[in-house]
Amino acid sequence: MARIGKKGIPAGCLNGGCGVCKVVIRCGTVRKAGAMSRAHISEEEETQGIVLACRVMPVSAIDLDVIGKMKKAVTRTLWGGNAV
Ligand code: FES
Fold this sequence. Notes:
The protein has 1 helix and 5 strands, in the order E-E-H-E-E-E. By secondary structure, it is mainly β.
């Protein structure tokens, strides 16, 4: 999707390192296209169909939900730090 300019699944590093593209596969089949970072996807999550979208390729029509979150500071203090 990132290659063809489509949005819908957040994309960051596109290399399995940031975790923003975390999705849960509700139905359909995917195959791994690279290593899945254990910092973002535990083995238990993987068995439940939770994957990094940038590390899998669909092999059938799939239905998924995005569960990754962009980690951005949305507010700042006057002193340049992040608000708590
Ligand atoms: S885009 Fe960074 S892990 Fe998928």
